[in-house]
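Input sequence (248 aa), recorded before submission:
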Amino acid sequence: MWSYSSATFLLALPFITVSGFTHATSELHQRDGDMTIDVTNHYGVPLQLSYGVNAGFPNFRGDPQPTTLDTDATNTYAVPSGWAGRINVGKVDHPDNSKIEGSFHGAGNGDIDVSYVDGYSVPITCSAGGKVLSGCNIELMDRGCNAPDRVSAWGPDGKPALCANGMRGSDWGPPSSFFAPCAGAAYTFPKDDMANVGMISETQISCCIGTSCDPSPRQQKRDLSSTKAKAPSLMARQHKLHKKSHAQ
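Predicted structure, token format:
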């Protein structure tokens, strides 16, 4: 999967402009043979989703519109064979948001990754078949967004909502210190291709937003810049509940 940057990707897309930002206008109408992408919000606040599709490629099923994803809610999207595009995710609607990118050319020819090339807004990991394929569950905003990166939007709470990636124009990196903990797990510069495992056979993808999502084995093992305790992973919580139910 290639990594998109706003400088090149948006020029290629037949978008409709909404509130000063370009969106591919796009509800689930799944058909046999489609790939599905579940997007679950465990970040703790409502998030904004919007969509992009490569010019000349088929759209998401049902043409989903930009929407708000409530806390602990899941939206499911279906895409047909031949699709290639992305889902933008953030606290505000902005082109520098974290992105879920993918393409699909039939079973055995799917591809998914998480990209912070344009910028970082929220931590995301995407999984299939019980394995994390791409992404990073570290809250990078705890590190502080400084040059060469910059804060490009502020949230309703008055705090920085996202950090624009100052290395987006440097194909081979290296990542800035802000993005470095996620290098090789999520795209942190355009050719950060360790963030992509290549073609996958699974057609059911689950993407999780938040620090409690299961981590990528390729991300930094511990975020030394943050003293915040990490929530247990979803798998760990499920295992704990399973043990408790058998103990009763």
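Checked by second reader. Residues 1-27, 223-248 have pLDDT under 50 and may be disordered.
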